[in-house]
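User: Could you check the structure of this?
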Amino acid sequence: MSTKYANAVAAVRAMENSLLSRSDIEQLISSATRSELENIVAAKRGTGSEELTLEGVWDTLRGYAPDCRELEILLYRNDFHNLKAALKSMIAGKEPQGYYIRPTNLDLEALYPVLSAKEYEQLPAYISDTAAQAYELLTRTLDGQLADSLVDTACMKAMQAAAEKSGSDFMKKYAQLVTVCADIKTAYRCCRMKKQRSFIETAVCGSSGLDKEQLVRASLGGTEGLFSFLESTSWGDAARLLAESPAKFEKWCDDVIMELAEGARMQAFGAEPLAAYFIAAEAELKNLRIITVCKESGADRETITERMRKLYV
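Assistant: Sure, the predicted structure tokens are below.
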């Protein structure tokens, strides 16, 4: 049996101890002030510990496993978002730095100059063609929404292709789940906006988990047609939650990704436990943001609890 990344996995096991548990979350929800909330988090992290950030988690994981290409797939959504930010900033004559998301696989200092010079070959192979196509579309049509759809669909395709190439069942399932969630959300939005078939075909990616042509056809029947189709698939639970509330659907998407991470957590070797830890850190930070925003808006305990994402520990 391969022991690849064994040291990295051991380090992740130790780092898991500083992740927030269910009892910690309960304390945070019950906290009366922002100061009390911050003290609870600080106590969990330990004296002198650095603040948990995704950039910090990513740098740590890459430090332990610098050659782990599978992990890069986790940042593809950030990469393609940054491409959109750079292109739109360039068209508008603005600086893009404030619109970038980190961590990312891209060299953000070089991204804008590369796009301005149309030197797309300097970008990673999985995003270079999309950059050229999106730039041409934006400059020809000035249709930011259509360009967004092109880039978002290309992102899902790139994730699926990279996951397939990796040979990792975990990454293939991750890419499939991310794509299905994105496609359902996009199809729903297209229904609400009464988009034409040509736009929906650009905006929906499709995957082995949810057929593109069937989803597009169902979307043309409005939300009723979309929900009826989804009820006939394995994504019926998602459809019912989306019908209730887009927020509940978003939570479901985050939770199914966490369930996937939980399954990879106890593997002794390989990239899967590293990816799972990154997903866990991402969910924890989202929970902290939800608690903070809800408390600032005066939401009650029940509302905050309902919005909490599934925990890793």
